[in-house]
Design brief:
single chain, about 90 residues, 3 helices, mainly alpha, about 35% helix
Length: about 90
Amino acid sequence: MTKENYSEEFRRDAVELYRDTDGATGAGIAADLGISHGSLTTWLKNAGIPTRISVPPPRRGPPRRDTATSNRPAPGRGRTPANGENQA
């Protein structure tokens, strides 16, 4: 990926658009402008503009089981063969 050089005016306009658009996310503004989210975030930091964090809506329904912390053994770490069983 090549590094794009954006004019100072474009950067200021992007920061202003983000600042003046209620509820907008950095990712959304960046996508609308065809720039990377990282570039916009850098410009916002340089301008002293705090970024908004989008919070997902609350989940509905029963909680899901967290598979990352389940009690299942990791692959290859299951039951070991007992004496007399083949270890093919």
